[in-house]
């Protein structure tokens, strides 16, 4: 886990407390400032200086998804996939070898992709929760995806506000530096001209 990942993890774990305790608000704002400052310094003045997180509005819309319905749909898909697997096995055992090859290979690939996709959807969420060290809210046994997206929305929103401020500061600094360089060049050219005319 990189330093930046650790800082983001700390921020996400303590975000709930931020709303209630004034001291933690100050600490967490400083942590967020450090995260944004590190990200802007890494890519300041380059083409990579784009907002590195999802748009807060997209994350908010994701938090509005009914994950219980999505979970039911995934379970139904797994049941349908199991039925499909049994049907494929029946067809393969009752068919002759000359007609079985394209069908069997394509269906095995289809079933493997379905198993992988459903397994991946569950594992990726579990890995995300574990990676950031998120804990369930009091009174809940497990972390609800909607809660994670709400945390991410608040983080992305705060991050974007700070990101814009930091980029404005960097832009002003670079413009000031460019103006100083142009002024020096103009003065240098002016001195040369004065010297040439007086000689």
TrEMBL record:
GO terms for cellular component: actin filament. One of its GO terms (biological process) is actin nucleation. GO terms for molecular function: microtubule binding. Pfam families: FH2. Residues 1-160 form the FH2 domain. InterPro entries: FH2_Formin, FH2_Formin_sf, Formin_Cappuccino_subfam. This is FH2 domain-containing protein. It comes from Cyprinus carpio (Common carp). The lineage of its organism: Eukaryota, Metazoa, Chordata, Craniata, Vertebrata.
């Amino acid at each position: 886990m990189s330093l930046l990942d650790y800082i983001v993890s700390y921020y996400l774990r303590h975000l709930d407390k931020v709303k209630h305790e004034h001291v933690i608000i100050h600490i967490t704002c400083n942590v967020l400032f450090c995260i944004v400052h590190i990200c802007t310094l890494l890519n300041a003045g380059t083409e990579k200086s784009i907002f590195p997180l999802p748009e807060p509005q997209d994350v908010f819309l994701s938090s509005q998804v009914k994950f219980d319905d999505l979970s039911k749909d995934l379970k139904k898909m797994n049941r349908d996939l199991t039925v499909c697997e049994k049907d494929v096995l029946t067809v393969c055992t009752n068919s002759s070898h000359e007609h079985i090859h394209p069908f069997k290979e394509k269906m095995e690939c289809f079933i493997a992709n379905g198993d992988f996709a459903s397994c991946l959807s569950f594992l990726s969420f579990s890995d995300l929760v574990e990676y950031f060290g998120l804990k369930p809210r009091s009174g809940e046994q497990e972390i609800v995806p909607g809660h994670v997206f709400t945390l991410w929305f608040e983080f992305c929103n705060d991050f974007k506000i700070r990101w814009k401020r930091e980029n404005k500061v960097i832009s002003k600094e670079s413009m000031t530096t460019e103006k100083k360089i142009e002024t020096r060049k103009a003065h240098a050219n002016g001195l040369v001209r004065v010297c040439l005319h007086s000689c």
